[in-house]
Amino acid sequence: MDARRAAELAARNAYGRLLAYLAIQSKDLTVAEDALGDAFLAALKTWTERGVPDNPEAWLLVAARHRLIDNARHTKVKTSVINTLKQFSVEGREDPAMEVVFPDERLKLLFICAHPAIAPEIRTPLMLQTVLGLNAAQIASAFLVAPTTMGQRLVRAKTKIRDAGIRFELPEASDLPTRLEAVLEAIYAAYSNGWENITGADPRQKGLTEEAIWLARLCVQLMPEAPETRGLLALMLHCEARRDARRTPEGAYVPLSEQDVTRWSKPLIKEAETELMQAATFKKLGRFQLEAAIQSAHAQRVFSGTVDWAALVLLYEGLIQLSPTLGALIGQAAAIAEVKGTAQGWALLELLPTEAVANYQPYWALKARLLKQLGRKSEAQVAYNHAIGLVEDPAIRQFLLRQSLDS
Amino acid sequence: MKYAILVYETETTFADRTSDQQEAYWGAYNAYSQALVEAGVMAGGAALHPPHTATAVQLLEGQRKVQDGPFADTKEQLGGFFIIDVPDLDTALDWAARCPAASSCGVEVRPLLPMND
User: Fold this and answer.
1) What ipTM describes this predicted complex?
2) CA distance to partner chain A, nearest, from residue B110 (Å)
3) Which segments within A172-330 are labelled E, that is strand?
């Protein structure tokens, strides 16, 4: 294995672990990132000359730690931090080939990234950069902002973490449920970002959904007792299982109910079901478990050929009690329309406050469909026009256009 | 680390200081200060007179510009502040949440710049 490849592999597997450890030690993300970056540069040089060490991760840790101590001497860092680093230096000795066992601090890092004092919109990018080692340009392209802008936002967030003195520890038990919710929200944001932006065949967009699933798997591994982390993983796996079926080979949008189930990934569905069942054993229902259960109900079509809409109505009811988002309310109206008839679903839509749904495309799309089924053609046309005007994805625009003409 | 808990108040809460609500108002702040002292985190603070007592001063091209009223005329005005000494932001936020103003108008938490010595 050549040096560059070894460094890449070490980077992918160990970057987050190394950075988390160094960050917790130095209590400064920027300093830790710089030190680790320097260590990787040194690795490229030294490993090319002298070969790859037996334990590349330990080598990188030792090199980064040296850099941290150097930096600490040059800047005014608290003596306690330098002492901690030096102490570790003695424990770890100077033999880079030696097996260095260091704790996995990535969970702390995840909680720091999703701290309530950090603006919600930067939490996901912060996680992607620190835990996964994506660079600002990669993150910027996924979030459709300029790389320099994303870079500045990330720097600002890391400066705030340091200057405001955010705790580099796990949250207190009493705070854990809400804090965990923020971590899961941020991971889910990475997923839905990649999910909604699949318009083209842009591999970078797909990459982010994979990263999100990777982060959720990590959370399950680090917090096996938290049912909502498994719920989130199950939810994303269910969605991922249908990725290929969401478009025809020509790129046209296919709504869930018309997707060809032979194009769904059974292994992913099965993995999702296992996670959801595991989550259920803790008997602590949550938003993500319910959302995953809703997707699971749709997924049953691959096994039984039918969808249990009555079960979906109940699941949506539960979800709305926990988290009454517009998406959930629209989903419930659609399910009620299937079970109790179009008029009942329509009645539910009518109850939603006009200003909240004014620019919400799924609302107008469902409203148009139900109006069409009720035979109210001209009103359906108006609703379709609304939905078409609000849509971002050209494939869905085409789909809605076809639906509106086909009446 | 030292943090300032900046207490923001509206006209209504400023009025509470002297109205028939004053007992409840000052009682809450006394209890809060007491709790800070007993926890050993109190490092200072002050209550300020209402914004109508404020005078803004600026030096514009060498000329003093003195104006009646607070610097920024916003609905929420600084009513006072507490300085606390706690290990991290998370602990500071716990204390901030207990401040009486947190449940009415709001408080802002800012780390103090360390003094060079």
Assistant:
1) 0.72
2) 7
3) none
